[in-house]
């Protein structure tokens, strides 16, 4: 394999990692603040994809603009879901099975709604940009992947800003560390939780739109990505945003280079197996290892 | 745990046993009065679902360990039986093999994953389930993605399969009742309620979970074996599908997780209506199951069985009041 | 003659926070030993380590000749070391009687029910027999604490570890529990009692160990310990000079 090929693969992995990161960050926020594993994340990824698709095919709105619009729309949807359903489950510092099952039920419902409205044929978003390739030297970057990566970075940067420079962000980080202490210090847990849930779903919607620009999709499109999101946040350490970045990179690299080693049929198993291995061998994720080393020094 | 239940309860329990024996007798005798092949098939499917529903409940309901991965045992059981029958082994041996293979798998899966708690365990089982499916889709000895066929060795005797599946369901129910009454069941419930406190009182959580998993897997594997012998053709997308694992989990939860009869109710409801639902409202079954799951989690954790129980109690109470006040 | 319980330089560090620093002491069989110290001294952590719920970073816990470190808490139970929890952890779906049954059936030599008292007898002994069939989830705090004791007793402890069994209780309830502890000790069980309520512990223990900042500060009879200036300083914090208050000869009673 030539150096150019290697470089191509590395860059492809990097671009993929960016999207994966946006896809996983939503789950991390929700899990970190409320210790809720949001299985419905897959459903919102799917809805995000169709949202951008519909705006493009019926209103001619550029998918990028569609993705931008999906943030506030899904934010509101997320808050509504929290108020109607999730709020009824008590938050604790321990992850609960009740919420897992509740959101799993929601995922089933969303999937079905997807089938009802859009049927089960694959859709794709094709714009002039889709097949365009930007050539820099010997390397060709598919334009759409660059664009998607750019948006992903922007979104993550925005999140970093919010987390460190705003009231909401500080409240989220406090709750992620310790729910009760946050309460004592005066954080309005319920309101923060609702907003955090909204933000989590908003990121899911945005990620869905971005993924739709890269892949074709159908109502059960969220599933494989959900599993990848799990792998990423478990690898990265369930509650760490830096961990999400690392996890995304690891998964993207393993998947991209995995194509060389494994026949195509076994591809889906990569993510699943990595997930199980990660859960069992690295319960704190990469971030956990890092923290342990840093604190003992 | 032998608790001195009030005598009224004992009377109710005895009546319950009697009622169940009656139901069983009816089911045994029913086909002899002439049931359409379709009705027999429906009942057969129901008995298989009831079996796996009860099995899942032993680990998930009594023990509180939610696994999305029971399709692994169902599928492995199916393939084990199919392979055995094709080599000329009798039905019972095939089913024992199904159970055995499933138990082995349950140990392999449980050893790494039972160190995880709650949702992490659940997610790990999703990963395992899908990995196995992909694996089985690519193993050529069992036909890979194109599936595996059981060779015909005589006429299809539908009633044989009916009685085998009924017998298995009864065995599962008996196992469930015995577990619930036993010291082992007490340990499971303690682990479900508070694993650390259970350990602090002498319960070995890891070993207990492994045992429950093995028992549940054995029953589920046997059910898969029973199904395979009926269907005569199995394929990975069918028996290892994630949707099977989901169905196995939905039945006891919707029926009433953690109880004896809840899984039975769930299995019966699913068995009887699932095919009809998919036929008549092909686009709605996920919606219905999802909504039921949400409603049950939020409002009636004891599921349909809990709902029925409350209604009957309310009716009985109303009747008693009316009797007391002429 | 080996000591009944011997802690040898037990240390515990939680990712950078050193909760215990080389704690060592020995207990003899029989009696009620008090373990006191200000908040954050590491008492509950130490108890958790002796019971097997936690693993120490280093050090040994030798009980009747066997090092318990490395075994989970159910192994400690088999050896006869049973604990109660600071915040009660009832098995909420089970009745009071069934809760105790768990202890009876899985505790030390738990298989034959003919050994020792059975669940109903223990409930009677502890004073909550009237609650036998009550769901444990709805008990008052005081009754939950008594259930913790009953459950632990069901497991037939040789060494009973009590973790702040009186916190949150009224004076009357506290006196009740203390009497219960005396009864338990008289029936042959050694007790190691962690408590924040100084008056309670002083009245019931024959030997007291004081901890502060993860280390053993002092040990001795209640009288000795109360008058130890280092101990007084740890509790009052040496603020006597700044606000003019003199430390009393007993302790400031904390409830």
What attributes does this structure have?
heterotrimer; B: 326 residues; mainly alpha; ABC transporter involved in vitamin B12 uptake, BtuC; two-stranded antiparallel sheet; 14 helices; 77% helix; disordered N terminus; C: 255 residues; alpha/beta; six-stranded mixed beta sheet; four-stranded antiparallel beta sheet; 10 helices; 10 strands; globular; disordered C terminus
Please describe what this structure looks like:
The complex is a heterotrimer of chains A (297), B (326) and C (255). Chain A is mainly α and 297 residues long. Chain A has one domain. Chain A has a two-stranded antiparallel ribbon with strand order 1-2. In chain A, helix 1 packs antiparallel against helix 8, helix 2 packs across helix 8 and helix 9 runs parallel beside helix 11. Chain A is globular and about 60 Å long. With 326 residues, chain B is mainly alpha-helical. Chain B has one domain: ABC transporter involved in vitamin B12 uptake, BtuC (Orthogonal Bundle). Chain B has a two-stranded antiparallel sheet with strand order 1-2. Chain B is globular, with a radius of gyration of 20 Å. The termini of chain B are far apart. Chain C is 35% helix and 23% strand. In chain C, a hairpin with a 2-residue loop joins strand 1 and strand 2. With 255 residues, chain C is an alpha/beta fold. Chain C has ten helices and ten strands. Chain C has a six-stranded mixed sheet, sandwiched between helices. Classes of the chains: A mainly alpha (297), B mainly alpha (326), C alpha/beta (255). The interface between A and B is large, with 40 and 38 residues.
């Amino acid at each position: 394999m030539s150096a150019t090929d290697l470089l191509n693969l590395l860059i492809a992995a990097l671009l993929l990692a960016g999207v994966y990161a946006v896809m996983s960050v939503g789950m991390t926020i929700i899990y970190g603040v409320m210790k809720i594993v949001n299985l419905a994340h897959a459903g919102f990824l799917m809805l995000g994809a169709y949202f951008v698709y519909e705006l493009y095919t019926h209103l001619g709105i550029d998918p990028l603009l569609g993705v931008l619009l999906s943030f506030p729309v899904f934010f509101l949807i997320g808050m509504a879901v929290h108020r109607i359903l999730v709020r009824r489950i008590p938050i604790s510092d321990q992850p609960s099975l009740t919420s897992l099952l509740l959101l799993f039920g929601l995922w089933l419902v969303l999937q079905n709604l997807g089938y009802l409205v859009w049927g089960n044929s694959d859709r794709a978003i094709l714009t002039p940009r889709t097949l365009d390739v930007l050539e820099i030297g010997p390397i060709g970057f598919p334009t759409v992947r660059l664009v998607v990566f750019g948006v992903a970075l922007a979104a993550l940067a925005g999140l970093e800003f919010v987390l460190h420079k705003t009231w909401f962000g500080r409240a989220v980080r406090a709750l992620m560390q310790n729910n009760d202490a946050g309460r004592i210090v005066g954080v309005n847990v319920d309101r923060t939780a609702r907003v955090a849930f909204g933000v989590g779903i908003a990121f899911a919607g945005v990620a869905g739109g971005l993924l739709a620009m890269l892949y074709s999709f159908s109502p059960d499109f969220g599933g494989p990505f959900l599993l990848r999101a799990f792998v990423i946040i478990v690898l990265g350490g369930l509650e760490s945003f830096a961990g999400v970045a690392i996890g995304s990179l690891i998964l993207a690299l393993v998947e991209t280079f995995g194509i060389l080693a494994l026949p195509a049929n076994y591809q889906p198993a990569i993510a699943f197996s990595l997930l199980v291995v990660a859960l069992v061998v690295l319960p704190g994720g990469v971030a956990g290892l890092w923290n342990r080393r840093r604190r003992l020094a | 745990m032998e608790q001195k239940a009030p005598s009224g309860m004992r009377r109710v329990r005895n009546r319950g046993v009697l009622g169940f024996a009656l139901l069983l007798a009816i089911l045994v005798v029913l086909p002899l009065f002439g049931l359409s092949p379709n009705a027999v098939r429906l009942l057969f499917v129901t008995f298989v679902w009831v079996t796996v529903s009860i099995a899942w409940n032993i680990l998930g309901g009594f023990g509180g360990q939610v696994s999305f991965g029971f399709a692994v045992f169902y599928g492995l059981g199916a393939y084990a039986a199919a392979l055995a029958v094709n080599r000329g082994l009798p039905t019972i041996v095939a089913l024992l093999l199904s159970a055995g293979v499933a138990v082995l798998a349950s140990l392999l899966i449980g050893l790494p994953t039972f160190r995880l708690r709650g949702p992490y365990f659940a997610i790990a089982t999703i990963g395992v389930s899908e990995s196995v499916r992909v694996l089985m889709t690519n193993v050529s000895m069992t036909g890979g993605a194109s599936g595996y066929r059981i060779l015909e060795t005589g006429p299809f005797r539908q009633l044989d399969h009916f009685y085998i599946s009924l017998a298995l369901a009864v065995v599962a129910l008996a196992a469930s009742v015995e577990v619930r009454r036993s010291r082992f069941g007490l340990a499971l419930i303690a682990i479900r309620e508070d694993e650390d406190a259970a350990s602090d009182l002498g319960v070995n959580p890891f070993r207990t979970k492994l045992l429950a998993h093995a028992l549940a897997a054995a029953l589920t594997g046997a059910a898969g074996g029973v199904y395979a012998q009926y269907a005569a053709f199995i394929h990975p997308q069918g028996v290892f599908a994630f949707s099977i694992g989901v169905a196995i989990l939905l039945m006891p939860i919707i029926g009433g997780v953690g109880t004896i009869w809840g899984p039975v109710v769930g299995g019966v409801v699913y068995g009887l209506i699932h095919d009809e639902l998919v036929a008549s409202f092909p686009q709605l079954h996920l919606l219905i199951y999802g909504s039921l799951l949400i409603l049950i989690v939020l409002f009636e954790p004891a599921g349909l069985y809990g709902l029925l129980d409350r209604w009957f109690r309310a009716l009985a109470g109303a009747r008693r009041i009316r009797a007391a006040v002429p | 003659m080996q000591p009944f319980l011997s802690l040898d330089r037990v240390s515990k560090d939680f990712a950078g926070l050193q909760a215990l620093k080389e704690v060592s002491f020995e207990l003899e069989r029989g009696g009620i030993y008090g373990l006191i110290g200000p908040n954050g001294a590491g008492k509950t952590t130490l108890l958790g380590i002796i019971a097997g719920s936690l693993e120490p970073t280093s050090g040994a816990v030798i009980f009747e000749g066997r090092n318990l470190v490395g075994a989970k808490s159910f192994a400690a139970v088999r050896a006869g070391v049973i604990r109660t929890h600071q915040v009660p952890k009832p098995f909420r779906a089970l009745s009071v009687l069934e809760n105790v049954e768990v202890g009876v059936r899985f505790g030390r030599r738990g298989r034959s029910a003919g050994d020792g008292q059975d669940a109903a007898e223990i409930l009677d002994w502890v004073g909550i027999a009237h609650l036998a069939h009550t769901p444990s989830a709805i008990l008052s705090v005081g009754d939950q604490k008594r259930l913790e004791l009953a459950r632990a007793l069901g497991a037939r402890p040789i060494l009973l570890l009590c973790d702040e069994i009186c916190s949150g209780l009224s004076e009357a309830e506290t006196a009740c529990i203390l009497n219960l502890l005396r009864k338990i000790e008289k029936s042959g069980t050694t007790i190691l009692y962690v408590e924040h309520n100084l008056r309670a512990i002083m009245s019931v223990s024959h030997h007291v160990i004081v901890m502060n900042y993860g280390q053993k500060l002092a040990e001795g009879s209640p009288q000795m310990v109360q008058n130890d200036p280092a101990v007084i300083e740890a509790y009052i914090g040496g603020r006597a000079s700044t606000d003019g208050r003199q430390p009393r000869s007993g302790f400031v009673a904390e409830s």
